[in-house]
Amino acid sequence: MTDSARADWRERIHRGSGDARAVAGVAATPPGAPRGLRASAGAGHVTLEWDPVDGAIGYLVHRGESPEGPFTTTKPEHVDVAGVPGARYVDTAVTPGRTVHYVVAALGSTDIAGPFCAPVPATPHDAGDRAVAVRVDAGRVTRPLPRPWRPMIGSEHLSHLLSAELTGGRPIGPELAEALRLAHEELGVRSVRAHAILGDDLGVYREVDGVPVHDFTGVDRVYDTLTGLGLRPVVELGFMPRDLAADPAKTVFDYRAIISPPKDHDRWGDLVHDLVRHLADRYGLRELVEEWSFEVWNEANLEVFWSGTPEEYLRLYDVTAAAVKSVHPGLRVGGPASAANGWVEELVAHTARSGAPLDFVSTHTYGNAPLDWRPVLARYDRRGTPIWWTEWGPTPTHFHGVGDGPFGAAFVLHGMRSAAGRVEALSHWVASDHFEELGRPPRLFHGGFGLLTVGNLRKPRYHALALAERLGDDELAVEVAGDVAGVETWASRHDDGRVGVLVWNGTLDHTKAAGAPILGRRVTLTLTGLADGPYVLTHHRIDERHSNIEAVWTSMGGGDWPAPDQWPVLHTRDTLDELHPPTRTLTTSGTLTTTFHLPMPAISYLEARPA
User: Fold this and answer.
1) 342, 317 in Cβ contact below 8 A?
2) Where are the alpha helices (DSSP H) in 371-524?
3) Do residues 512 and 519 touch, judged by C-beta distance below 8 A?
4) Per-residue pLDDT tens digits for 228-252
């Protein structure tokens, strides 16, 4: 794809499909202004905190050069939603010595914000010791550790599993299957979500003399491969088969997926029913009820993915959900699988009126932690309805290099930690760089969405999730103090007495993806509540020089693709690195302390195990 074509794509993905709020009859009341806004200035940052607002799904943070304004968003480039989910925000897009003023407003829904609070000033600096104290109490369990990455991961359309072609000299189908196997076995992932299971390349639907013919042979090949890996699909019901499309000329992606509504909703409903019935017969009805789920379309709130109106999508949802439930009422169906938090409340309000089933709500976001939709669900008496973020990652932009290095790794932990305990699934988009929406990868490191490269080299984002998967089942209490900036933590305990602590340093500001020395921190980690006796302390690190396969490739001379004799070298050096060899130490009154430098971006995982 040419640069101009990619620019056109970036512009198109921000154009909506219409006003679903009016169609669904949503009339939310804006929340009140946040109270207690306080600003703490440090080296290279300003940290803002405020009192949470009842009913808020997130907050808008704006800054200005004077208390009178004008105030503009602090949203960094490549963040698709301006809001932040919690009552804390770290602004690193500041200049030391220059005073800035902040205001904050609460979001009641995607596009309904309350008034801004009174401005608060802060002046960041470049001085101080930049020290952070992290204190973990190994005897204080806060809850079972949530793992929102486990329920699902994204993938290129699954017919790619059947491809016998090559990218960069590597086999597409087998390597995609291997990437999904690794995500399952090493990251604990249970399901895979992908587009276009109803695409014409799998031949599910055609009309012969005007009569519909259903053929699920291609679907069987795909899902047999997936289930053979130990995974289950989140069946995204789309896109539209050519012979069923009202306007087959409306397409998306290089593989020309059709984004049109159906020309006949009864025939669409029959297709969905017959597909689900076939899957139940092939894999077992109990299996489908307990392990599978069905999502209606993909990002219909963007015109690039849906050529119809909001009314037509809501009709499609009702017909599709009814068709799924007609096979068995226990099957799970939901949506709207929208871009950038769109149409969530609209679908919830619509189903409340229409009576259509809604077993989970799903939406997408990129470049930020996901917003908190629980207050909206509560307003519609849907407390406890699962919230699935079925696409999420550091950037929505294809071929954007921010995801290939350690910046993306710190981002992944920031999002997972934020989502833990308040959403059921935060699905990273995607597992593998074997991906062809806007053309197949032009080189090994091309800013692909994948956790794994072509050739299945582990990127820092993959290593970040692998470290999170190492955490124990008991989450531990953590206290963090000092010039904290973007330092965050996650601590846990294993049944065998091991204590694992993740400490990372990141920012949402992509302009600092290559690093920002002013944001580096000296971290002192103290573990308390340990048993007396000797411990072995290990320290794994992800940063520019550790666990960074892109840097390894650059040190080998780089280029577009490795030569055949370079692949074995890359795989040998594709490691999760230790910062230093394990050390043996004695606790003092159940306490262990260590100090280390943590650049930005970087991740440290420290584990203390009884010797």
Assistant:
1) no
2) 374-379, 406-419, 460-470
3) yes
4) 999 999 999 999 999 999 999 999 9
